[in-house]
């Protein structure tokens, strides 16, 4: 449908999916627009195929509302529920017998669930949903992404902080600190993005006080992340909203991100130039070089002793049993004994020694100065405890957003940016789905069908003909459950053409409080 025709005619949904009995809180288009995953307030997940618009799997993933879902490769699904758990499921091929009985069909017999791979306890008291990204940039569209490690950011136990985990290790690798310069309130939304220009992973957070902040995860250059829990550095802070931030999303290259809140404002933020080498991890080589540099300064101060130093060193050469220097009478008595007399190196003798009759100032405890080698060994940090050496960050000040648009429609949430970076979509409390231009933030379409508030929206991936052909081959290789190979008949070719047509469409999926999911075709 062309843009002028879309502007003239009222838009209508292409399909309506029914089957949930509770309000929809999450929608996610998966597998290059071939499948749709929806989650409701009762914890139910429905895995739809867009070819036939029928469910492939239905199971209860959580005991409370679903907050968000995400795709990890072609066979893994991540779910986050209000029951304080984050779970990773494995959806195998078509040969697996999953229940297809929808929640609206009533309680049925035993429903087999997908294989549960990971469970992580998380904080959900602030309604903040998780976010994920791959550890390496550019692998999201590959079917080999199932073997790629991922980062998952969730709200921390302190509701003003966030934590970043690495899967499949289930390891906490980074802590996102609270913003100390301003009272931001609790974390309401988080987003993990790859900054393409600076090759860094960023954590974008939205807060209860209308703030948004960008935190940079330190890069692991020395391979010591297993021994060190890094702390993200705040590089940007802005307050474009007067109400709590509801959703955040970014352009594919990570250069700009967008935020929406309970007020009527949609803001665009340009991520500033990232500092180089903001955090360095201490390796054995770095530790030794640091110690050598400090020891050079130490040697420079002890290589040339002063007059007082010579006196102290002379007194320190006496054994501990002699707390005070011997008097002249004691020296005279010691001449009768054949014991070895006390002596000092000639080169350390002072030029003007004190007379034997004059007693020096009493010293209660001998002062010993370690040699150069002992100083080096004492100043060298322990090698087994590797720690991060953070450079003092500059103070973060509140900066204005790059662009602010007052939409006059409060309560726009579930903001999503399309894969080509041209459009963004929001779901509104007024039951409208609105599409905006990412360049101008102007409203380009309003999708109206639902009678109640829209809580979740998502864009389909924009694919070309080459991408569709490639995905068909990879999908065929992954479907191990195809017991009978498709024959090159006219019916098989027709079915394949229908599947490709579904993948090529520019989908918008919306889930609302009425428990229904609408599918739209936009520009």
UniProtKB/TrEMBL annotation:
Residues 278-378 are annotated as: Disordered. WD repeats lie at residues 17-58. InterPro entries: WD40/YVTN_repeat-like_dom_sf, WD40_repeat_CS, WD40_repeat_dom_sf, WD40_rpt. Coiled coil: none annotated. Component of the ASTRA chromatin remodeling machinery complex. Component of the ASTRA complex involved in chromatin remodeling. This is ASTRA-associated protein 1. It comes from Paraphaeosphaeria minitans.
């Amino acid at each position: 449908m062309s843009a002028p025709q879309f502007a003239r005619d009222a838009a209508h949904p292409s399909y309506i999916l029914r089957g949930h009995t509770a309000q929809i809180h999450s929608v996610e288009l998966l597998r290059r627009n071939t499948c749709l995953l929806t989650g409701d307030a009762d914890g139910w997940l429905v895995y739809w195929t867009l070819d036939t618009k029928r469910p492939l799997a239905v199971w209860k993933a959580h005991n409370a509302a679903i907050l968000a879902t995400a795709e990890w490769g072609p066979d893994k699904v991540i779910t986050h529920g209000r029951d304080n758990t984050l779970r990773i499921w494995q959806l195998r091929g078509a040969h697996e017998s999953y229940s297809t009985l929808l929640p609206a069909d009533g309680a049925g017999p035993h429903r087999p669930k997908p294989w549960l791979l990971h469970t992580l306890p998380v904080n959900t008291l602030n309604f903040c949903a998780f976010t994920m990204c791959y550890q390496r940039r550019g692998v999201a569209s590959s079917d080999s992404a199932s073997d790629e490690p991922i980062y998952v950011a969730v709200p921390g136990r302190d509701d003003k902080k966030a934590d970043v985990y690495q899967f499949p290790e289930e390891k906490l690798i980074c802590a996102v600190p609270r913003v100390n310069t301003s009272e931001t309130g609790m974390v309401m939304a988080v987003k993990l993005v790859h900054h393409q220009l600076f090759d860094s992973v960023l954590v974008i957070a939205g807060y209860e006080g209308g703030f948004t902040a960008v935190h940079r995860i330190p890069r692991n250059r020395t391979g010591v992340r297993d021994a060190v829990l890094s702390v993200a550095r705040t590089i940007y802070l802005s307050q474009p909203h007067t109400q709590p931030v509801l959703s955040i999303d970014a352009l594919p290259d990570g250069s700009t991100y967008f935020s929406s809140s309970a007020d009527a404002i949609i803001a665009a933020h340009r991520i500033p130039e990232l500092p180089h080498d903001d955090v360095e991890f201490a390796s054995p080589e770095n530790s030794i070089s640091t110690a050598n540099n400090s020891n050079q300064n130490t040697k420079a101060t002890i290589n040339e002793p002063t007059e007082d130093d010579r006196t102290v060193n002379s007194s320190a050469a006496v054994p501990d049993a002699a707390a005070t220097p011997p008097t002249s009478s004691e020296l005279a008595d010691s001449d009768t004994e054949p014991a070895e007399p006390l002596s000092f190196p000639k080169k350390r003798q002072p030029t003007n020694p004190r007379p034997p009759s004059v007693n020096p100032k009493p010293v209660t405890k001998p002062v010993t100065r370690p040699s150069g080698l002992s100083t080096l060994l004492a100043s060298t940090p322990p090698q087994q405890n590797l720690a991060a050496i953070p450079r003092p960050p500059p103070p973060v000040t509140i900066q204005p957003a790059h662009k602010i648009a007052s939409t006059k429609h409060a309560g726009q949430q579930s903001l999503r940016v399309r894969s080509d970076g041209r459009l963004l979509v929001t779901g509104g409390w007024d039951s409208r789905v609105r599409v905006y231009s990412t360049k101008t933030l102007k409203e380009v379409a309003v999708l109206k069908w639902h009678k109640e508030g829209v809580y979740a929206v998502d864009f389909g991936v924009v694919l070309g003909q080459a991408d569709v052909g490639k995905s068909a081959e990879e999908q065929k290789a992954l479907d191990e459950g195809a017991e009978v190979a498709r024959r090159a008949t006219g019916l098989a070719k027709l079915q394949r053409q229908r599947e490709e047509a579904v993948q090529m469409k520019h989908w918008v999926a919306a889930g609302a409080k009425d428990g229904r999911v609408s599918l739209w075709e936009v520009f």
